Q: What sequence folds into this?
């Protein structure tokens, strides 16, 4: 795999600083039942990196003593972690909202039969990857049979009232472009998703989130192989909108890797660019006071243009809708 970090470190991206901490995003490990082409984590079935029980306990301790109101669980497939339910239950007991970033097909894996009911019982918000509403495109990006499995998982979630009006069970879908292009307008694409999935499969959801593909890990390596990396970066820079800087996720979020180290965002985590704080190169979740993050400088590189290009992109979808 081609390393993209050396191509990203020299940057003229604007300097930005943190605001109040609202969200703790925790990567529970890189083990996943899928190996998607656009995956910025390079996750897959063969990955063995998973968060230890000790580090999970440190995460819970941080939640108890911080202003965090949202726990955002990701991976890999976070549901495959043996302490997934323990972490969810701990956060909900603190009245902290929990987001599960779900690839959908994991809900069909052996041992996951009760996971949808657990998510519903704990009122966990599900943010589900579905990079297109057409079978051919999804299977091309994520593997043969993935679309059919995703539809089955969505039906199971819908049966539990996920995506239903006034149910309190939120189900958002996530779109990624098929290649080196910016996502289309989120609101218009959401209507296309809604009409097609309802008409063809009877599937309902709350919102569609459009995410820009980041030029790192598998996708970045593919761009380098195709000699399209610099063209893609030119596209991101040319589409930069400074107004999006106010809404980028790193202002209110801190990312935790499977070993417990802190980063300004999930993308910096995948580039091994740790959060820098008070001279510490690698602050750890077990040794950090949340108040120390206030107004701290955010570590930027050229990939940050992926969050401010066009309508903008964050873990919550487009910034300018």
A:
């Amino acid at each position: 795999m081609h390393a993209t970090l050396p191509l990203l470190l020299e940057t003229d991206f604007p300097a930005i600083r943190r605001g109040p901490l609202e969200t703790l995003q925790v990567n529970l490990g890189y083990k996943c039942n899928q190996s998607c082409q656009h995956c910025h984590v390079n996750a897959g079935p063969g990955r063995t990196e998973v968060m230890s029980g000790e580090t999970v306990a440190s995460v819970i301790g941080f939640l108890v003593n911080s202003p965090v109101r949202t726990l955002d669980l990701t991976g890999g497939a976070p549901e495959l972690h043996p302490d997934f339910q323990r972490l969810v239950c701990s956060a909900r007991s603190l009245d902290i909202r929990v987001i599960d970033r779900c690839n959908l097909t994991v809900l069909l894996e052996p041992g996951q039969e009760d996971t949808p009911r657990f998510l519903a019982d704990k009122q966990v918000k599900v943010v589900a990857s579905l990079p297109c509403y057409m079978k051919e495109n999804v299977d091309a990006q994520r593997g043969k049979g993935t679309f059919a499995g995703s539809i089955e998982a969505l039906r199971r979630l819908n049966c539990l009232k996920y995506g239903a009006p006034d149910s309190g069970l939120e189900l958002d879908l996530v779109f990624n472009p098929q290649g080196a292009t910016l996502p289309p307008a989120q609101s218009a694409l959401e209507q296309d998703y809604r009409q097609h999935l309802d008409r063809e499969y009877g599937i309902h959801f709350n919102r569609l989130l459009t995410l820009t593909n980041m030029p790192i890990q598998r996708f970045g390596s593919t761009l380098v192989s195709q000699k399209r990396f610099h063209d893609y970066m030119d596209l991101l820079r040319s589409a930069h909108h400074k107004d999006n800087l106010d809404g980028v996720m790193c202002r209110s979020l801190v990312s935790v890797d499977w070993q417990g180290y802190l980063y300004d965002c999930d993308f910096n985590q995948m580039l091994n660019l740790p959060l820098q704080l008070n001279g510490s190169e690698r602050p750890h979740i077990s040794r950090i006071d949340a108040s120390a993050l206030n107004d701290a400088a955010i570590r930027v590189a050229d990939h940050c243009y992926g969050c401010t290009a066009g309508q903008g992109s964050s873990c919550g979808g487009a910034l300018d809708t």
The chain is about 30% helix and 10% strand. Residues 5-308 form a domain with the TIM Barrel fold (CATH 3.20.20.70).
